[in-house]
Amino acid sequence: MLRNCEKAKISHIRFWCQMLAVLRACTLGLVLPQGPPRTTMHRAALSKMAADADPATRVYSLADQVARFERAKAEKNERFLNIDSVFDGSYLKGKRVLLTGGNQGLGLAIATELTKQGAETIVVGRRTSPELDALGGKVITGVDVTDSASVNGKMLKEVGGPVDIVINNAGYFWEEHETLDNLNFEEQMKQINICALGPLRVSSALHKAGLVKGSIIVISSQAGSCEWRFTQNPEGGDYGHHMSRAACNIMAVLLSQELKAAGIPVVMLHPGFNRTGMTAKYSEIWDKEGAVDPSVGAKRVLHEIGQVTMEKSGSFINCEDGLQIPW
Ligand SMILES: NC(=O)c1ccc[n+]([C@@H]2O[C@H](COP(=O)([O-])OP(=O)(O)OC[C@H]3O[C@@H](n4cnc5c(N)ncnc54)[C@H](OP(=O)(O)O)[C@@H]3O)[C@@H](O)[C@H]2O)c1
Asked: Ligand 1: residues within 6 Å at CB?
């Protein structure tokens, strides 16, 4: 007969054996026989990787935008807070860069920086603007990214030769906050058409015409991360826009797979929070959440584009900190 203290010892050992097995299962990504469901576990693991105390080993960016900005300030993260400390746009000199949606906002700022760095810009969109015209680059107007005829027709006819970098920047976010009370399927289709099919239309047309020499960049949004909805949309909503970016991301991943053999990298970039017409509806949180002038956003984007390699193809990166965003 075992004495009480021996029994206690055995149950203690059993407990720790079970804990070890659980830990092993967690490391292997297995489902716990009992305990939290996999989604909760997965989320906890991602949060842990994002909250890694050592910035050098961090993989994922933080979902909480306020906490992300606060952490950058606490760590005096120059990469995040002062892009000029790392940005070197000299790689752009003489490069032919095709950019969609460059007549305003972030696109205009990217076109401005490209021009400053000596790139040859070809801006494609529905219309131009006096600011864009003043840059003196090539502007192809009358091209709506939802219209295959103008993309395959006017754009290809006027692009005038191969391009080194394609930046799919054109995007659209319906003004209203969309909930079950005001679902707008027409707006949802429009957002999906512009934000997900748009970059595919433009990129595939250029590729099939043999005009892509380098990389394809898709300016996406953190809004496309399903994982981050648990933090950023605690009450849901914004169906059309966020679905459009999730669709955009899966499109870009598939494109990256198909273009691997051709040696063309495809990378998705969240450009950070920029003070543009699109986000004016959030202007009351611009300061708190670290929204930047689009000229800063443009350098962040171009800094990440400068880091693109085939190894990075298919990844989804936050241009604020250079870290990945989970799907
Ligand atoms: N601002 C941010 O904080 C933020 C955050 C995450 C992601 N983004 C993404 O970054 C990109 C630029 O955003 P932004 O803030 O600069 O927005 P913006 O000021 O609203 O500019 C959007 C651009 O897209 C063009 N566009 C829209 N629909 C088009 C269509 N059907 N065909 C061709 N061009 C079209 C617009 O041209 P028109 O003049 O013809 O409308 C404009 O040039 C977007 O893809 C956006 O989703 C922005």
From this structure: 100-101, 103-107, 125-127, 144-146, 169-172, 194, 219, 221, 270-271, 273-274, 276-279
Mutate-to-test residue for ligand 1 from 100, 123, 172, highest number of ligand atoms within 8 A of CB: 172
Q: H helices of 124-282, where?
A: 130-135, 148-150, 156-158, 185-192, 198-208, 226-232, 239-258
Map residue 257 onto helix, strand or coil: helix
32-43: b (≥16 Cβ within 10 Å) or e: eeeeeeeeebeb
Six token digits for residue 306 = 């400068």
Instruction: Please write the tens of the pLDDT for every residue from 239-280.
Output: 999 999 999 999 999 999 999 999 999 999 999 999 999 999
pTM of the model: 0.89
Q: How far is the CA of 209 from the centre of ligand 1 (A)?
A: 25
33 falls in which pLDDT band (50, 70, 90)?
A: very low
Contact 221, 215 (CB under 8 A): no
Which of 187, 192, 278 should be mutated for ligand 1, with most atoms under 8 A from CB?
Answer: 278
Return the structure tokens found at 34: 């009992």
